[in-house]
Design a protein that fits this description.
- It comes from Urochloa decumbens.
- InterPro entries: At1g61320/At1g61330-like, F-box-like_dom_sf, F-box_dom, LRR_At1g61320_AtMIF1, LRR_dom_sf.
- This is F-box domain-containing protein.
- It holds the Pfam family F-box.
- Helices cover about 25% and strands about 20% of the residues.
- The chain contains ten helices and 19 strands.
- It has about 425 residues and is of the alpha/beta class.
- It starts with a helix and ends in a 19-residue tail after the last helix.
- It is elongated.
């Protein structure tokens, strides 16, 4: 929409010139200016010598404040912004201080078209390098680099780009390398000496943290996403202990972490997700104001300090149903939404005297084939009695091997529910 409006503004004088040549409007007065009789202000239409020796109108652009022009330019896609800067002096100035830059194969117009990966990687590196050299470095708030190719010299380019971009003004940094084999070590030392004070969002993928130098500058960090990042629990602990403003934490496929400890000093943390970190065996949360979390993995032990704030939980771990029944009612008494995806349960759902007094939505999925033959799928009916405020209950069973008795066997106490009326139920 911004680009369409700009095109209309630019095309306006051309339409007037065409109508003038057809005799539909009067030619400009002899002094060469189209002036406003009402206020005497100079118009944006000025005389210019035509190649034929006569006079023609030249349009200098809309008379808008510089900050408005800069905002319009910042909303344009990268390629359109670059083209506008090449034909407009006003846009050229804003290009040199463009606040948001996102590099990807689509934003740079790179397609395969028979070219190999090395050629694409080479073009990507050279184009990004050229664009950043044209930028003044001032005013850059957001930088996103999504590699579409990878070469041996990419590390050199990337180091120089980050050195240029990480300033006390940068607020958001996203770095997505193309391949797991790209063993790039993120230079966290760039955040030293106050250069990381303004960073709020940090999103990096497929690289390594091998040092904790500079992490003490990330005091304003609010959002962290680490995907396929080789970071140890000690390095992660250092990052978290220095990020007191953190609000959201996402750890995805981080294979070196064995333990995630979220300290109590993270008082603003409201959400954390630990997904498919296959070596994690313990997740310990002491942050007091967490309202939701999503945990997936295998044999993960979850330790939760009692929290009145937690309302939404997603569990995708072994024996998730048993854990939920025994641990959650006391640890998170105000829980409202619970989703459980279990692929391994050793025993049927245990009977517990604890209740989910505020639980309104419950979704249970039994997946895979790693269930004990003695497991009774319908023992999860226990939740109907344990959650008197339940409104929605979804049960999904998808198992490759299931004994007939686990479905239609003799009624057991685990299948029976007290005669409680679920007045809130929408099942």
């Amino acid at each position: 929409m911004v680009l369409l409006a700009w095109n209309r503004l630019v095309s306006f004088p051309r339409q007037r010139q065409r109508r003038r040549r057809r005799g539909q409007i009067r030619p400009p007065p002899p002094n060469g200016l189209v002036s406003s009789v009402a206020n005497g202000k100079r118009s944006n239409h000025e005389d210019d010598d035509s190649p034929q020796g006569g006079k023609r109108m030249r349009y200098s652009g809309p008379d808008l404040p510089e900050d408005v022009m800069g905002h319009i330019h910042s909303l344009m896609p990268l390629q359109d912004a670059a083209r506008a800067a090449s034909v407009s002096h006003a846009f050229l100035c804003s290009w040199r201080s463009r606040p948001n830059i996102a590099f990807s194969s689509s934003s740079l117009g790179l397609t395969e078209n028979g070219r190999g990966e090395n050629k694409i990687a080479s073009d990507f590196n050279s184009r990004v390098d050229h664009i950043l050299k044209k930028h003044s470095g001032f005013g850059l708030r957001t930088l996103e680099i999504e590699f579409c190719g990878y070469k041996a010299n990419t590390h050199c380019y990337l180091n120089s780009w980050l050195e240029f971009a990480v300033t006390p003004e940068l607020e958001e940094l996203t770095l997505m390398l193309p391949l797991k084999k790209a063993k790039y070590c993120f230079p966290s030392s760039l955040f030293s000496n106050g250069r990381g004070n303004s960073i709020r969002h940090l999103n990096i993928s497929w690289c390594a943290f091998s040092t904790t130098v500079g992490l003490d500058s990330l005091k304003n960090l609010t959002n962290v996403t680490l995907r396929d990042v080789r970071i140890t629990e000690d390095e992660l602990g250092c990052l978290l202990s220095n990020s007191s403003a953190l609000e959201q934490l996402n750890l995805i496929y981080c294979s070196k972490i064995t333990c995630v400890k979220i300290p109590c000093l993270l008082k603003r943390l409201s959400c954390f997700n630990v997904l498919e970190c296959d070596k994690v065996r313990l997740i310990e949360n002491k942050a007091p104001n967490v309202s939701c979390f999503d945990i997936s993995g295998g044999q993960v032990q979850v330790s939760l300090a009692e929290s009145l704030q937690v309302k939404h939980i997603v569990l995708r771990i072994d024996s998730a149903i048993s854990y939920a029944c025994v641990k959650l009612p006391s640890a998170v008494p105000n829980l409202e939404n619970l989703s459980i995806f279990s692929s391994r349960e050793a025993v049927s759902t245990p009977l517990s005297p604890s209740k989910f007094l505020h639980l309104k939505f419950l979704c249970i999925h039994l997946l895979g084939a790693a269930f004990s033959p003695a497991y009774d799928c319908f023992s999860v009916v226990y939740f109907l009695d344990a959650a008197p405020s339940l409104e929605t209950f979804v049960l999904g069973v998808s198992q490759l091997r299931m004994q007939h008795d686990s479905i239609v066997g003799d009624p057991s106490p685990l299948r029976q529910v007290e005669g409680r009326c679920h007045s809130h139920s929408r099942m």
